[in-house]
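@channel anyone free to eyeball this complex?
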Amino acid sequence: MVQFDSAVVASQWSSMEVIMCMLSSGRCTRAHLYLLLLIIIALGFHTVEGIWPLPQTVTTSPERYPLNSQAFYFGYGRQSAAKPGCSVLDAAFKRYFFLIFQDYTSGNVPLRFNQNKPFTVEVSVDHDDCESYPNEDSSERYNLSVSAGKASLNAGTVWGAVRGLESFSQLVYQDEYGSYFVNKTEIDDFPRFKFRGILLDTSRHYLPVTAILKTLDAMAYSKFNVFHWHIVDDPSFPYQSSTFPDLSSKGAFHPMTHIYTQSDVRRVISHARLWGIRVIPEFDSPGHTQSWGKGQPDLLTPCYRGSTPSGTFGPVNPVLPSTYQFMTKLFKEVSSVFPDSYIHLGGDEVGFSCWKSNPDVRAFMQKMGFGGNFPKLEAFYMESIVNITSALNKTSIVWQDVFDYHEKIPKDTVLHIWKGTGYKAELSRITKAGMRVVLAAPWYINHIAYGQDWHNSYTVQPLNFSGTDEQKKLVIGGEVAMWGEYVDATNLHPRLWPRASAGAERLWSDEQQTSSVDKAFPRLQDFRCLLVRRGIRAEPLFVGHCKHEYQGI
Amino acid sequence: MVQFDSAVVASQWSSMEVIMCMLSSGRCTRAHLYLLLLIIIALGFHTVEGIWPLPQTVTTSPERYPLNSQAFYFGYGRQSAAKPGCSVLDAAFKRYFFLIFQDYTSGNVPLRFNQNKPFTVEVSVDHDDCESYPNEDSSERYNLSVSAGKASLNAGTVWGAVRGLESFSQLVYQDEYGSYFVNKTEIDDFPRFKFRGILLDTSRHYLPVTAILKTLDAMAYSKFNVFHWHIVDDPSFPYQSSTFPDLSSKGAFHPMTHIYTQSDVRRVISHARLWGIRVIPEFDSPGHTQSWGKGQPDLLTPCYRGSTPSGTFGPVNPVLPSTYQFMTKLFKEVSSVFPDSYIHLGGDEVGFSCWKSNPDVRAFMQKMGFGGNFPKLEAFYMESIVNITSALNKTSIVWQDVFDYHEKIPKDTVLHIWKGTGYKAELSRITKAGMRVVLAAPWYINHIAYGQDWHNSYTVQPLNFSGTDEQKKLVIGGEVAMWGEYVDATNLHPRLWPRASAGAERLWSDEQQTSSVDKAFPRLQDFRCLLVRRGIRAEPLFVGHCKHEYQGI
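replying in thread with the prediction:
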């Protein structure tokens, strides 16, 4: 019954190799030394390598300082633009105190270091963006310097400071006596990509708000910064619109228990903000809209069998002025409810058979001179929707399909690549046209496989496509997608974590330093135990244990 | 992103077909009518088809009776051998009251039927086996008759009564006003196989006792009756032996936090007993024993490189008398701690390379006249272990390997079939030799795949192998195995449920009545929602929702 496991076997083999290289005359390569480091980690020595995702540059030393929860403080630097009262940092200080001193609430303060040596984490940021929302231009760079009795954390923005606090929290460890320590450390860190997203699908299954908030917490632990909320789709419409309440009262799985009220949405957005996470809603059309039709008569295209309506409906009806009036009102509301400058308009997988069957649509095609070219009709529709949201000063993200059939869309539109086959060619094609892209295709982690399938997310090389440096710059990031066909609150977290964290390191860290799954394995195992310790139901990578196992049921 | 789903597509197609058969002249086949029934279920009408696993015979009627938690009683029939004070039934009555009236604790008693119409479930059993343990001969047959104001539940044993109470609890439903109802119903039910097990592996990952108890609850909801506790293996030895405490203090992942104390084990056994579940421990040897070696010097075979010990160890050392003295003491303890008459001795996947390398083993082979035939040595070892447990009046279960290399083992030994390839030929071979078998091979549900992989467990045909009726009778049951390489408390329940329930119906119900996954789909969806309502993190089968979603995080 024992499973063959490449990572484990490889690192065992490597260990032997390293020991031999040490016993031998001594020509140890850099790889050998790195492997030695790995073994040290495996042996439980604490090194800054424990930070996940791996920071850009790190220097650490064995010199360690005890931390005592009775004499541990977060504070603002004298030069900091953000002062006490800064909502983002005040909240972060409190959260991270409890994340660092996990057993604090249980009251058993380690006695060994009770001679109150104070330790202060002094945070300084250049801009007072405490009450703002993170956006596409927010810098997340930070510098962290840990020395005797003090850690200095400097960042341009509070969002960078939040990332730095996460790294600091991961530097703290406990010895066998439960005493807390942090080692002398220097970190200069920044993300490789500025868009690092997670998609949740709340239409195929409804996710209680608590499950979403918990996901946001775990996202911050892996330094994700975008929550792509695929909030509605064919199966259900849980978003409770103030303008069109029928959409959820008739289109949700249940009009009261399976909806997101305006206050639910505000709660998600404000929780995300405190973690430096953007919330980008997707209202996918003209396809994937079956649930919209229940609460909005005449929105969907009536399909015909011969000369008579069949009683079924297709995509949004692109020929009626009422359609665009409805969309204008809906997106006006959505734009004000969701503060982010991005909005996702979908545009994927539109089937033409129903449009083709409908005489009014065919007549419209003739009038517009589209002939039989239905992609032209689809392009006409998407162009209209993009224009509606542009008028609302929103940047549109659309699925790659929109580019595939129609290359003339506003230059600032972001293309979202989801098709697994040939996504590298697509990256070349779209960036060559000067458009920005977000890559999701290789990170559809709703697809599961037996064994260590986190390797698939980890070994992605997002910029390994043929194109100029200018083209590569147009890849603004990536997204880990958890589609909801087989996922709800019962299994969401174990399927997301730590598998999504593998993608998180690919999107944050330097690819050269993080190219090996064997090197990542023990680090990800440690990080997974940290997630479990923080109450996230992160599933195991392989045989083993955590000091603190998940105790829930 | 929409997934193609055969079950859903099929049942949609079927619905249309049925409607057409009703509109048409009317030659509706039996299949059509069954499909009509399916549609009715899908529409939410309550029928006894809702019971999972499907009872052997059921007659139900639309006549329904309201149930009021204020006037609902479980009681003992006048003729019942079991009387008030019967531990199994007293406990079951209390459990099922709360399982039936789910919102009782939350206090919102439906008002609509408050004119206290009393309803009594009267239970009668032929034997007062209230304080005993379920065993391989325990009858689980029951007869349930629900009429106005009363349900009569008759069974030979309390274990049959517990199965009947589960079925009754699944008959109860709530209308839109929250009022409880049960329909007039007649059920005569019994299991197809008497051994219906679940294997949990607590060595590759440690499972907290709470996770095991929760598993036992969910097992009872699916009418499983054997908990095969694969308690120790190579990675760790969590069983705290009173005779050999070093086995866990040195062989467990942690000597205090990752062990099962004697009281933990008693807790598991007594919890299982109240559900009519047998607990069969497995102490697998001579292979899969690396963790045993840490606390028991000289137990494992020292491997040699050339003429010197390599420092690594292989399987249990079969040539030392001390080995058999140790095993005799260990199994004496285990036999008294675990009351079941069965004990699992493992015997799978023994590698010979280490034995071959060891000069003492080779010398022993010569002395015994085994020559170079190591299966003979393995047979010698297993025979000795089986004799030890036979002397303790235990029936041995061993993995199929033991039969494969050695056909002369006590006739009452049960062979456990686990190898996926050619398991039907193995069934023929072993039953032909007159040995009893338990089938696990097609139910290794630790192996996961994307999509509705419960189909694999459901479509198994355990008796579809070439053999006489006598041979088929030797298949005493099956087992769903959840090996622990990738599973711990964080993801155990969503991976087990409802996927294991598919196997449960195959093992309990009539195969002819339950041969179609399309017919099973809506029933299993309902059952999965029932599990979620009862606090089990059972994952969804496909797109959809439950009235009461999982609210935990």
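from a first look: Residues 1-48 of chain A have pLDDT under 50 and may be disordered.
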